[in-house]
């Protein structure tokens, strides 16, 4: 196992820890953190976009993980569903038996959310991922549901998360009623060179490294190839560690990094 050679106790940038290792290095994350806390204090609708690999969903998971669990109910749903299936899935997450008629389903959801907030003192947070795939029908239906369920006050913090086309879609005239509910539009950019370098340093330290095992030339190559995308960088870094291990090296030089890039489907896509 290559970790022993490099004195590591874990993989650098593991998927389950990326939020802890790089989001505090990103200027865009600071804006997201402020918006997140504002919507916690005053529930409403937020939209978060970023290119694939930046870590938008992981960023929200990282923020949600810091909330006191007894006071918040965080629900993650994927957008690969139709409108009615979405409400049924939400009902299941709230512990309800989904009704078969829309009017009854909406009424039960509203009643459950009111009970959750007013009787149990729990604030619901819904994160709808891959929202760029949602249809016009879904958005129109969602606007109607929000008007019905929260006619007097907003009880639910809702985040629509997706690729950049999501924001453009929501700005279409037909979605004006829903757009007027949006409190925050945010877009996360890939990490710049300084933030990327800080992420890599932190990642190795968190993985148990006691000395620098990444040559400056390899670090620069990793940054340029990954384009500052943490997910791509994590994949290439793991491959580079393996390449250096196979070459009987105790550090990653530019040759090991180049080999990792050439042999990785991720690297080939980025370089294409």
Annotate the secondary structure layout.
Layout: H1 2-6, H2 18-22, H3 27-41, E1 45-50, H4 56-65, E2 72-78, H5 83-93, H6 102-119, E3 123-129, H7 136-149, E4 157-162, H8 165-170, H9 176-179, E5 182-188, H10 193-206, H11 216-226, H12 230-246, H13 254-263, H14 265-271
Parallel strand pairs: 1-4, 1-5, 2-3, 3-4
What can you tell me about this protein's structure?
It is built from 14 helices and 5 strands. Strand 3, helix 7 (136-149) and strand 4 form a beta-alpha-beta unit. It has helices at 2-6, 18-22, 27-41, 56-65, 83-93, 102-119, 136-149, 165-170, 176-179, 193-206, 216-226, 230-246, 254-263, 265-271, and strands at 45-50, 72-78, 123-129, 157-162, 182-188. The chain is α/β, with parallel strands linked by helices. It folds into 2 domains: 27-188, Rossmann fold (3-Layer(aba) Sandwich), CATH 3.40.50; 191-264, Helicase, Ruva Protein, domain 3 (Orthogonal Bundle). The two termini are 31 Å apart. Helices cover 54% and strands 12% of the residues.
Total beta strands? 5
Biggest sheet strand line-up: 2-3-4-1-5
Helix/strand order, N-terminal first: HHHEHEHHEHEHHEHHHHH
Question: Total number of helical segments?
Answer: 14
| Class inferred from helices and paired strands | alpha/beta
Write down the Rg: 22 Å
């Amino acid at each position: 196992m290559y970790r022993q050679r490099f004195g590591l106790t874990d993989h650098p940038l593991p998927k389950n820890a990326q939020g802890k290792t790089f989001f505090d290095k990103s200027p865009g994350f600071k804006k997201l953190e402020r918006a997140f806390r504002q919507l916690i204090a005053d529930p409403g609708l937020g939209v978060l976009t970023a290119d694939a690999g930046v870590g938008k969903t992981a960023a929200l998971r990282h923020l949600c993980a810091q909330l006191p669990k007894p006071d918040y109910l965080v629900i993650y749903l994927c957008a690969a569903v139709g409108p009615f299936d979405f409400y049924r899935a939400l009902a299941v997450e709230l512990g309800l038996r989904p009704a078969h008629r829309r009017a009854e389903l909406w009424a039960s959801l509203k009643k459950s959310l009111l009970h959750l907030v007013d009787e149990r003192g729990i604030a619901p947070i819904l994160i709808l991922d891959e929202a760029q795939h949602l249809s016009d029908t879904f958005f129109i239906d969602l606007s109607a549901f929000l008007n019905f369920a929260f006619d007097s006050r907003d009880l639910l913090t809702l985040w629509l998360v997706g690729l950049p086309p999501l924001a453009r879609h929501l700005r279409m005239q037909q979605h004006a009623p829903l757009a007027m509910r949006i409190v925050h539009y945010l877009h996360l950019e890939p990490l710049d060179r300084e933030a990327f370098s800080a992420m890599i340093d932190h990642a190795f330290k968190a993985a148990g490294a006691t000395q620098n095992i990444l040559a400056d030339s390899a670090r620069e190559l990793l940054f340029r190839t990954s384009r500052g995308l943490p997910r791509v960088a994590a994949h290439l870094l793991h491959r580079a560690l393996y390449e250096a291990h196979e070459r009987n090296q105790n550090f990653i030089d530019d040759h090991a990094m180049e080999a990792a890039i050439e042999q990785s489907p991720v690297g080939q896509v980025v370089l294409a």
